[in-house]
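Continuing the series of single-chain predictions for the mutant panel. This is the parent chain; the variants come on the following pages.
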Amino acid sequence: MGVRRRTVLPVSRSRYAARAARAGRPSVQVAALVAVLLVLPSLVGCRDDPGEPVRIRIATGSQTAVYHAFGQSLATILNRELPNVRAEVLVTAASVENVRLLNAGEAELGFSQADVLPADPSPDPAVVAIARVYDDLLHLVTTADSPVRTLTDLRGRRVSIGAAGSGTEITVSRLLKVADLDGTRVDRVQLGLDDSVAALRNGEIDAFFFSGGLPVRAVADFVRDNPARIVSLGEWTARLREESREVYVPRDVPRSVYGTDAVTTVANPNYLLVRAELPDDLVRRITELLMERRAELAAAHPAAGRMSPRSAIATAPVPLHPGAMAYYRESKP
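Parent structure:
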């Protein structure tokens, strides 16, 4: 004789409890089922919850300089393309401060000139590279009627050498030393880009330095509204290479950039740096977006459009992050 099977229909948690109460005795099976039903929603929530977003703080520079424009565009791309990433931009004094923030764990990505980084990094550095992004050109800006026509004309004059903690300050200090203008031979003030422009416009300084990718918006705005001159510095590049770092190279500032006379100046590479502890998969994806969204980045600033996978890998002496290296190997620059 066959066993008659009874179909059990789904019952709510309250009905299970009521049935047990009517029976007048505890039911181990019912209690266990109620427990499962109570726990199930939390298990489902855990499975579907993506967790806290990954915070990516990008250390940049002045709001009117290239690092900031580049960083803002990169943050927009990361927030759009990486669902579990929350990217934001930090306004800083630029290179030196950016490296400090990265080392202190107060930023995850940051831009820096090559000449402020250690020439001989440690075997296990806390900060490594994602890419060489473009070259910074050192600007020496003065008014059109200024007697400052060469670097040595700065002797005895009041000059902004860049903000404290900036790459500009590092490069200019080395440049003034090789030109025998160190010490008190130049009246130095440390102003950021925007304050330097304002001080020159108001006659509070005779000239200012700034290192940035072409074109620097604040310089372009000043030159558009004021008769101005950019002073040639190219003749000092060889001396800088001999006495300081081999990263320095001569680069031209064509007339088409600012509408001023064409000059040659000192340039050095810029790197996008990253904390070494960031996961390889995340850094690989950031690198991929950096390279494959170059047109969008270039719309924010033309300097970003000069990147390529082939030039991006030239970050010596700073090693590439393994995630970045994985991308470049796959893309075969």
